[in-house]
Write a structure and sequence with these properties.
By secondary structure, this protein is mostly helical. It has a single domain (about 5-115), classed as Up-down Bundle (de novo design (two linked rop proteins)), CATH 1.20.1440. Helix content is about 75%, strand content about 0%. It has helices spanning about 10-25, 35-55, 60-85, 90-115. Helix 1 (about 10-25) packs antiparallel against helix 2 and helix 2 (about 35-55) packs antiparallel against helix 3.
């Protein structure tokens, strides 16, 4: 068992949720049930799955939840690309968020690689 609050990646993912909420509040209102909802759920899924995985009994189970967190990060990255494609955000905003997401992806992969299974 691990303490998720001590994991740097969990902290960064938690801050990303706040950033995504701030970003999505400025998206067009007609995206309320589209991109806004999807991006918020994907961002929340990242730290949530990291935390849930820490409570599992085996590293194999923890690894499965880290895999889900990585998948959610890729979903969020794709949705961010769509926001850029649709003209909802500018290149600089995209790059800033892309960098944050990719750092979290690398950290989750690194953590996963340290598990014994």
């Amino acid at each position: 068992m691990h303490n998720f609050r001590e994991l740097k990646v969990w902290g960064k993912a938690r801050l990303l949720v706040k950033d995504i909420y701030l970003l999505t509040k400025d998206l067009p209102e007609e995206e309320q049930f589209g991109l806004i909802s999807q991006m918020r759920r994907a961002s929340i899924s990242i730290p949530s799955n990291i935390a849930e995985g820490t409570g599992r009994r085996t590293d194999k189970e923890f690894g499965r939840f880290l895999d889900i967190a990585i998948g959610s990060a890729y979903n969020l990255e794709t949705q961010l690309i769509l926001c850029l494609d649709l003209g909802f955000i500018v290149d600089k905003v995209f790059k800033d968020y892309e960098d944050k997401i990719q750092e979290i992806e690398r950290m989750v992969y690194s953590l996963r690689g340290k598990l014994n299974y």
